[in-house]
Design brief:
Elements lengths: L4 H9 L4 E2 L6 H12 L4 E2 L1 H9 L7 H11 L4 H8 L3 H15 L4 H5 L2
Parallel strand pairs: 1-2
Helix pairs in contact: 1-3, 4-6, 5-6
Length: 112
């Protein structure tokens, strides 16, 4: 349902073998099914291009979780509660995320 490159990459990193956006035409769905049956993965060209522009591989699994929650507009306090970690730990992760992604604020990170 989402067409956010970060969420698509995250799904693929977690084991998804294909991604077809909700707006896909029936031909694209069939292409994805054919790719999976052939043992391949499938992401449409538009989304694949956007994903390649980002280098999320440098982030740890926990950092990816935090970025995902930031993109869903959760506050640092809400992230801490949701992940059952301290607020200070979330803040430490954010410092590492900013460094790795070259961003300086939640707004910049949100817009990646």
């Amino acid at each position: 349902m989402y067409e956010d490159p970060f969420l698509i990459q995250r799904a693929m990193d977690l084991g998804a073998r294909a991604y077809v956006p909700k707006s896909a035409e029936s031909g694209e769905i069939l292409a994805a099914i054919d790719a999976i049956l052939a043992g391949e993965t499938y992401i449409n060209k538009k989304d694949k291009t956007q994903i390649q522009k980002q280098s999320w591989q440098v982030l740890t699994r926990r950092e990816n979780e935090i970025v995902s929650l930031i993109k869903q507009s959760f506050s640092a306090k809400e992230i801490a509660q949701r992940l059952n970690i301290s607020l200070r730990t979330v803040e430490n992760h954010l410092v590492h995320i900013y460094t790795k992604t070259g961003t300086t604020s939640r707004e910049e990170l949100f817009n990646l």
